[in-house]
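Changelog-adjacent note: as of this version, every example in the card shows the full chain rather than a window. The one below runs 302 residues end to end.
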Amino acid sequence: MDFRQLSALVAIADTGTFSAAAEVLHTVQSNVSTHIAHLERELGATLVNRGGGLTEEGELVVARSRRIQAELDALVADVVSLRDDVSGPVGIGVLGTTGRWLVPPLLLAVVAAHPKVRLTVLEGNTTALVPHLRSGRIDLAVVNLPVSEAEIELQPLFEEDLLLVVPVGHPLADRERVGVAELAEHELLLPPQGTSIRIELDRAAVAAGVTLRAQAELDGIRLIASLAFEGYGAGVLPASAVPGWLAGDWRRITIDDLPRRAVALAHRRHGMLSAPARAVEELLPKVVADGAAGQPGVYTLV
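Full-length structure tokens:
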């Protein structure tokens, strides 16, 4: 088994076909086919369905291969950084609502402190970012809690208020504060069950002896925010999704008896971060602390 074989399998997983994988690897399709045949023979398992897609065994090998690639990339970056300035790629995943105020100063801070570090930012929600982190596609991720992953190490960064956003004309639009029990009297735009914010909302509802009712379940805080701002319904949103400068035909309402949203920096528990990733990890808490000061409803923990 060699890394060319593993790279061929990963390329097939990413592109979907042998020919497309060959283009990505700058080789010919026959070489890709040979690498896969040798790998399957050595492992004694079929890894690629010839009709398309990977087998269960193939998916397992790809997951391990991505982590091997991440470790090799980290090795190269570490050696280069010992000889010269810290340099190399770093992939970081960021919540969309947090990225709005965190990414710009983070990019500036990285350029100022480590100009040879190449930062790639992936925007997504926690349920999407954690698998990318676990597989090695990204090095770090800014996620909201809770995260129940044994392989993920978490460092709390900040907390933020959860607010109710309602369109003008909604029965609650003239209120300054509402309780969780009152939320249950109205249909809401909610994240799907099992997502981090929904878990906290459902816990608060159970404590209040009520059940929240969904007008629609939407997997994306910024999508919920957009619909609430456009008047399609009432939504519970983190403070960073409702910036102070934003105005429209809607109202912000404080929710009593609701815990703040907790946001943390995550990385894989096993395997050492590369030198560039460690440099970004060190910069991030200060960038968060400076940026949170200008965000109403956001409270730094670092």
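Structural remarks: The two ends are 45 Å apart (CA to CA).
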